[in-house]
Amino acid sequence: MPYSQGTVILSDTSVTVNAVENLHTEYTPTAGTGGSADGFGDEGYRKLFDGKKETKWCTSSKAVPEGETQSCYYVDFQTAEPSYVEQYVLTTGNDTSYYPGRNPKSWVIKAKLKENDDWTTIAAVNNDNKMTTYNYQEHIFQLDVKEIYKYFRFMVSEVKSGKNNGF
Ligand SMILES: [Ca+2]
Reduced to 3 states, what is the DSSP secondary structure of residue 100? Predict the structure, then answer.
C-alpha cells in the first residue's frame, strides 16, 4: 500500500484552531473540545478541518482526552491513510487581531499508527513566540518525523491570555 506524504495543517486561532488546506490527504476529526454542544455558536472543532480559513474552532471548554491526565483544549483526528507528517500549520482566526489572547501558547501534538498503539509526541511547543496576532495568518511549523502515522491528537494546554481559544 503506498503511503502518502502528509502535511498536517491546523488553521484558525481563537483555540479558535482551524485545520485548513488539505495538501496530501484527508482529515477526519473524531473527538475534541468545542463540539456542537460546547463550541461558540457553530464553531466546533470540525471547523479546523473544513479547508476554509473563514471558519474556525472557538471554544472555552477544556477536557481531559481519553488516556490523558491533564485538562486541555484538544482535537483528535485521523488521516485517510498513514502519512509522513512534514509540518503543520496553525492559522489564526477571523478576529484574532481583536482577541490576540486567544492564540495558543503551549501545545503538544501526538501521533500513532494504529488505534491501539501508544501515542508518540511529535511536536511540543512551550510559550510560543512565533504566532502573530494578524487575522488569517498561516504559521508553519516544521517537523522531523521519521515514522508514518494515521492518528493524531492536538492538545493546547494554554492560550496567550484569558480562557478562550480562537484558531
Ligand atoms: Ca476552518
Answer: helix
